[in-house]
Amino acid sequence: MVQLWYMNSGSEDQRLEHHLTPPQLADLDQINEETGVLYWKIDPNNDDGEDNLDKLKTDRGYNYEDIMEISKGTLPNYEEKIKSFFTEHIHTEEEIRYILDGSGYFDIRDASDHWVRIKVIPGDLLVLPAGIYHRFTLDTNNYIKVKRFFVGEPVWTPHNRPAEEISSRKEYIKKQQKGFKEY
User: Fold this and answer.
1) Residue 100 CB neighbours (<10 A)
2) Which of 12, 124, 135, 168 has its CA 20 to 30 A from that of 96?
């Protein structure tokens, strides 16, 4: 099962776990209700996993995909990209990531604006709703390979915080106030 916890505000290496003292684990169902973040575990090494992935893509309308490998040897402008991924931002579309290899962290803001760190490993599929403040970093393994899914033409434009005037952020706040169970 996915691991998620509330983060400390330390400024040491972003690739470290950043647990509170004592550690405070987060509950996936509660985080889903508060933030709309969705999670599936899909085994890429069996037919059921592929069938589940195909069904999910059909159900959610994902009709474009690509693969991105993040490491010093595979990503042009690596240092610059890693910094931009870790800058708090939103997108106007969902961010969908299926982890194929390696590991890393997605950090999201909960309903009280606290950071929650989500550790992702192979088989994890994470959907961050449009308008949620988040960021990404590798862990100390410095490598991840992900499949990215999109609805329609790929859009990956980050809008750094503050981005309260962006329509996807306004819509996200409305959904958050009503509760994501309705969506």
Assistant:
1) 16
2) 12
pLDDT for 101 equals 96
* For residue 59, pLDDT beyond 90: yes
Write the CA distances from 141 to 71, 101, 138, 159, 160, integer angstroms.
9, 11, 7, 28, 26
Distance CA 157, CA 148 (A): 14
| CATH superfamily of domain region 3-182 | Jelly Rolls (2.60.120.10)
**Is the pLDDT at 124 greater than 90, yes or no?**
yes
* Annotated binding-site residue numbers: 89, 91, 95, 134
Annotated binding-site residue numbers for Ni(2+):
89, 91, 95, 134
Q: What count of Cα atoms within 13 Å lies in the side-chain half-sphere of residue 56?
A: 19
